[in-house]
Amino acid sequence: MRSLLLNERFVFGLIGLNALILFTLGFPQISPELRNALLWLDDLITICFIAEAGLKIRRDSIRGYLGDAWNRFDFLIVILSLPSLVDVFVPSDLNQYSVFILLRMARAMKLIRTLRFLPDIDRTLEGIARAVRASFLIVITFLLGLFIAAVVSQRLFADADPAHYGDPILALYSTFKIFTVEGWFEIPDQLVENLPPLAAFFARGYFISLLMVGGIFGLSLVNSIFVDAMVADNNDELEAKIDALTEEIRALQCALARTIGESNEGESQLRGEDVGGSIGEAAGDRSG
After folding, report:
1. Per-residue pLDDT, 147
2. CB neighbourhood size of 164 (10 A)
3. Which of 113, 116, 173 is nearest to 147 (CA)?
4. Which of 21, 130, 197, 231 has the lowest CB atom count within 10 Å?
């Protein structure tokens, strides 16, 4: 059993089985007997994860275990999923209370462990962290612009369209929808119905400029910077390979040049020896 719990493939299989159990528990049509059996099986999987963490700590020591980032991540997920062990003992008539709903939500935390089994997840997370650092300033600027646009819109259209601009929260949500090009024409069309023709004309122009600045240029700029920073690692790797290949080509050119130079020197020496031999023979013939 110990070897199974320390086997990554077996643990991944438990996570997949746990996902299937949680998916099945979402159907209200299943019988109470099957539901209880699935809950007990889910708790057994949680206990297996606890045992896995205990075995790794015993094998590597607490310092060695927590020294690995993925182990710390797994340990946190296991701790967060511990309240789900109480859920099976909760009577069904108490499930409507929020505290017991949170106990059920704790079961889903175990599924986050699948992240560590994704291929190249470390490189992906490094790319995300690099992209967040690179786009942090532009995101703050975008959010500040969103906030200013929402405040201005709420002051302008609170009376004409209280459903979308009745308070700052509604205005912020409606402005964000326009920035994301969701409902960018529905909101203005509903708003201008309560405005006179001239005010409706300027309102449409206002929302068009809002869409252009925030939705097309602003959000596109945030996305482009984020994506560019995400793939920057791949570009750096390609540049490193190209530089290495260039160095190899230069080394081959230098080696080829040396080889050609040595070959030319050898031919020159042979020619010199042939000329010298010919002169010596000619001199011998004359003396004879």
Report:
1. 92
2. 23
3. 173
4. 197
* Residue 155 Cα distances to 73, 138, 176, 182, angstroms: 46, 26, 16, 22
How far is residue 103's CA from residue 90's CA, in Å, rounded to a whole number?
A: 10
**pLDDT, position 15:** 80
pTM for the model stands at 0.52
In the CATH hierarchy, which fold is given to the domain comprising 123-230? Helix Hairpins (1.10.287)
Which of the pair, 116 or 132, is modelled with greater confidence?
A: 132
Provide the pLDDT for residue 97.
41
Q: What is the pLDDT of residue 262?
A: 66
Three-state SS at 251: helix
Q: Where are the beta strands (DSSP E) in the chain?
A: none
Residue 266 has pLDDT above 50, yes or no: yes
pLDDT in tens, 177-232: 888 887 778 888 888 888 888 888 999 999 999 989 888 888 888 888 777 777 66
In this structure, how many other beta carbons lie within 10 angstroms of the beta carbon of residue 254? 10
- Cα gap 143→150, rounded to integer Å: 10
List of residues 6+ apart from 42 with CB closer than 8 A: 18, 21, 22, 25, 84, 107
Tokens of 159: 């009376």
Residues recorded for the chain: 288
The domain spans of the chain are 2-117, 123-230
Check: CB of residue 161 under 8 Å from CB of residue 138. Answer: no
Q: Which CATH superfamily is domain 2-117 in?
A: Voltage-gated potassium channels. Chain C (1.20.120.350)
| Residue written as token pair 């062990």 | 85
